[in-house]
Amino acid sequence: MNKTDHCPDEFWTQAVAFDRAHLWHPYASMTNPQPPWPVASAAGVRLTLGDGRKLIDGMSSWWAAIHGYNHPALTQAAQDQLQRMAHVMFGGLTHEPAVELGRRLVALTPARLEKIFLSDSGSVAVEVAIKMAIQYWQAQGQPDKRRLLALRGSYHGDTLAAASVCDPVTGMHRLFPGVMPEQVFAPRPRCRFGSSWDPADIAAFENLIAAHKNELAAVILEPIAQGAGGMWFYHPDYLRAVRSLCDAHDVLLIADEIATGFGRTGRFFACEHADVVPDILCLGKALTGGYMTLAATMTTTEIAETISSGEAGCFMHGPTFMANPLACAVAVASIDQLVSGDWEARIQGIEDQLRTGLAPCRDFTAVRDVRVLGAIGVVEMQAPIDLPALTRQFVEAGVWLRPFGRLVYLMPPYVINSEDLSVLTSAIGKVLSTL
């Protein structure tokens, strides 16, 4: 029997008090910390709070827990690996879980992407991708090609280089002037996914890449679906045009599929919507099914060999916990679980139900837009939301959602059934109808 079973009220009162006094949560103030909701356990698509209430999770723990919580196959993989070794350094050593994960990633991704760098998190995967691009051009004798062209409305992570290619208005650029690299930004694509394509939508991007081609190492973007920067879904022809322009101007293309990879948009990778292959691919989040942190940056043999023949003679990055065996073993189990089932039909069913369930929100005066793609549902409000108040209302309705800015959105686990998904969409409709 654990502490929460023995005396939940006393334990959680003290735990939350300690948390507020000492633990710094993401994007949170320490002078006015919001009390967190204590989670005692999680199973399937439900979180059990310290007071015993159960919430249907609509967030997949920031889009990672695609199989839900405490999945038997993933848990067994972790337990089995723990009996062998939890960790061993990857410098000079290798192990079966890393090799098996590598085999699966090479098999699932386009043939050009043969080289894999395993790291700790999505932000680090983007840092690695940026360093790969810069080192590649250095090795080519073009050290001036060290800037990135990114899209407004984008989000790529919180470390300095990753944050430098996030949206320049909603990101951190004003807080770290002179420290954060200065990048080039194109307007957010206007043509929506599923709408008509207007070739004029790529004009601004085309002008920028032509003007800066001699200093651009790479273009970085979230293919088809922008995530935390605005939850915006854009036309596949935009991505096709970007690939073509990168080729024409000798600029690498980095696809950040950390949020979109492993089926979230209805394709295994979002780049498949446009039949585009990037030069560098970033993966994370759902890679381990949300069990633990792990990320991968994949690239071509030509890029890897060019970097390796450069001045340094190697790629200059090496996290302590890269290719952690425990994480790799769970990632193998997660991928096997996903590909062994009819994941496409499951995502299509979620998409269909999200469209139906969120449609009534279009009639609310406080709502600006409703959009759905794959297992992503978004309700955009006219004005910024009161996050603590809205979160409390959702908890009272029996669901866990984490809105931000003007966006209330769903990224549920793929294992969610129609009844639980209906509870989520109904809760959104009920809460937003009062605004």
**CATH second-level architecture of the largest domain:** 3-Layer(aba) Sandwich
* CATH homologous group name of the largest domain: Type I PLP-dependent aspartate aminotransferase-like (Major domain)
Provide the structure class: alpha/beta
Helical proportion, percent range: 25-40%
The number of helical elements comes to 14
Write down the CATH topology of the largest domain. Aspartate Aminotransferase, domain 2
Count up the domains.
Answer: 2
Strand content: 15-25%
Total beta strands: 16
Task: Please tell me about this protein's structure.
- The protein is α/β, with parallel strands linked by helices.
- The radius of gyration is 22 Å and the shape is globular.
- Helix 4 runs antiparallel to helix 11 (325-340) and helix 6 crosses helix 10.
- It contains 14 helices and 16 strands.
- Helix 7 links the parallel strand 5 (147-151) and strand 6.
- It has helices spanning 3-6, 8-22, 60-63, 72-84, 96-108, 122-139, 160-164, 203-212, 236-248, 301-308, 325-340, 343-358, 387-396, 418-432; strands at 39-43, 46-49, 54-57, 113-119, 147-151, 184-186, 216-221, 225-226, 232-233, 252-256, 280-283, 295-300, 367-373, 376-381, 399-400, 407-410.
- The protein folds into two domains: 37-70 and 342-432, Alpha-Beta Complex (Aspartate Aminotransferase, domain 1); 74-340, Aspartate Aminotransferase, domain 2.
- The chain starts with a helix and ends with a helix.
- The strands form four sheets. A seven-stranded mixed beta sheet has the order 4-12-11-10-7-5-6, sandwiched between helices. It has a four-stranded mixed beta sheet with strand order 1-2-3-15. Strands 13-14-16 form a three-stranded antiparallel beta sheet, with helices on one face.
